[in-house]
């Protein structure tokens, strides 16, 4: 019986799929870390807003207010950068995921072909065994005493 002709192709496809799965996990981790950074920045901003509210009740100088405003603008820019980072990481993760899905579908298709090949080999093997059995039975039948040929 012939071995599965696409065995090497299947093996390479499985390796590529496994490598891509690791890449997908890495990209997902990067996206999660970017989201975590945004949460940290939001908490920091909220804390600064609360602190500024307390300071404003007590009164602050114009120079201090300017400095607080500059910090608020810097935080807003950092939040925008964090959002851009989240968006880029999400796009990368989704692209890597789409590539992995294609590779995984290829692996599944090759495995299905391998299963069909194996089923065909099994059927052929059964036919050979049945033919050999039938030949042995026929040969034994002809060798029986009293059988006229």
Rg, alpha carbons: 36 Å
Number of helices: 2
Give helix and strand order, one letter per element, not per position: HH
Distance, first to last CA: 36 Å
Question: What proportion of the residues is helical, as a percent range?
Answer: over 70%
Describe the sheet with the most strands. Answer: none
How would you summarize what this structure contains?
The chain has 149 residues and is mostly helical. Helices cover 90% and strands 0% of the residues.
Describe the fold and architecture.
The structure is a single chain. The chain has 149 residues and is an all-alpha fold. Helices cover 90% and strands 0% of the residues. The protein has two helices and no strands. The protein has helices at 7-58, 62-143. α1 (7-58) runs antiparallel to α2 (62-143). The longest helix has 82 residues, at 62-143. The protein is rod-shaped, with a radius of gyration of 36 Å. The mean pLDDT is 93.
Topology record:
Elements: H1 7-58, H2 62-143
Helix pairs in contact: 1-2
Which features would summarize this protein structure in a list?
mainly alpha; 2 helices; 149 residues; 90% helix
